[in-house]
Amino acid sequence: MTAAEAPSPYLHANALALGEKGLLLRGPSGAGKSALTLDLIARFQSQGDFARLVGDDRVRVEARGGRLVARPHPAIEGVIEARGLGLAPVEFEPACVLHAVVDICAPGETPPRHPEEREKTASICGIALPRFVAADCSNVSITRITFFLQRITTF
Asked: What is the distance between the alpha carbons of residues 155 and 149, in angstroms, rounded to a whole number?
């Protein structure tokens, strides 16, 4: 990887811990990353599973021992933006190992119905993770993301 290809210290993304898995949510501004994060945390917690925010909007991702570790930006750790409410304090984890990536489509776009194999992984800092593309932050997308996460074996 050249210096031009090196990832920026902070990604425009959200990171959260859901059960035993760390998830990185990416998508354009306004796509619903924060709303989806809140919905996923609420769904997992309502089922009695562990779920916490790691970082909202800006997340540092670094390779450590063959794994990707996500951490919040120190200026905004422990807060999440809830549109219409502003920045809200929430319980958070200072770091998590990432096991998967979910990319949210831009408004008006749709995910592929049958993604090609190369679309099923995302490479970050030279480490490949399972990838899923969600249409939006609807209940249907939340169900599909949960289904996707259940099929990932932790390492």
From this structure: 13
Rg from Cα positions in the chain: 15
Q: What is the pLDDT of residues 110-131, one digit of tens each?
A: 898 899 999 999 999 999 999 9
Q: Please check whether residue 83 is in contact with residue 99, taking contact to mean a CB–CB distance below 8 angstroms.
A: no
Largest CA distance in the chain: 44
Q: What structural domains does the chain harbor?
A: 10-150 (3.40.50.300)
The set of residues, in sequence order, having a beta carbon less than 8 Å from that of 108 and lying 6+ positions away, is: none
Secondary element (H or E) of residue 40: helix 33-46
What is d(CA 86, CA 83) in angstroms, rounded to the nearest whole number? 6
Listed as ranges, residues in the chain with pLDDT below 70 are 1-8, 154-155
- CA–CA separation, 26 and 15 (whole Å): 9
